[in-house]
Amino acid sequence: MSVTDDAIEAIKQMIVDGELRPGDRLPREADLADRLGLSRNSLREAVRALSLIHVLDVRRGDGTYVTSLEPSLLMDAMGFVVDFHRDDTVLQFLEARRVIEPAVTEMAARHMPDSDLEDLAKLLDSLGDRPTVDQLVENDLEFHRRIAGGCGNSVLASLLESLSGRTQRARTWRGITQEGVTERTLAEHRAILHALAARQPDVARAAATVHIAGVEQWLRQTLVE
């Protein structure tokens, strides 16, 4: 379990124990980090993760509050995590991606028009060096969608888009909790693009395999923990 996961669990336990109730304001960051024995950076990442799934409400200039925790809100928030923490179905989707996507990427290296490859490069450049998790995942989804669309087989493209959408939440959570994932994702995307542009089908297939396997490996470890 990562340090950020530890911080998330600590805050969640405070809510479960009733120490933090709906509408309560969290203690000052420095005080809470010291009390929980965490770094302020880890605590900050945990707050960001919990605000993303609407457990916490960060009000700029005012503080961070526990949400109303209405049943419908909690169901949506917990669904975000339960998808892959308590159900390995998403792992099966990632396994399917690992089987299909490298082959599709290999086909794209042969068939994708040069103009589409240029647009793919612009898509990666548009992300910048420090994207948010949401921006990273959105760019990631579009990157793979375009490659699938350039493989020359609309059936495979449609199938892959369906599989990719089913793993979006897991990819978002990975972006929040795994250190260095943004840099790693961008580097792997660049490697795939380079192989496509060089018209190297075997290299493109290998780069895609490494990329998808990295997400799958992280998820397997998360489920074990």
TrEMBL record:
Keyword Metal-binding among UniProt keywords: no
HTH gntR-type domain location: 1-69
InterPro entries: GntR_C, TF_FadR/GntR_C, Tscrpt_reg_HTH_GntR, WH-like_DNA-bd_sf, WH_DNA-bd_sf
Single GO MF descriptor: DNA binding
Transmembrane segments: none
This protein's UniProt keywords: DNA-binding, Transcription, Transcription regulation
Protein name: GntR family transcriptional regulator
Lineage summary: Bacteria, Bacillati, Actinomycetota, Actinomycetes, Pseudonocardiales
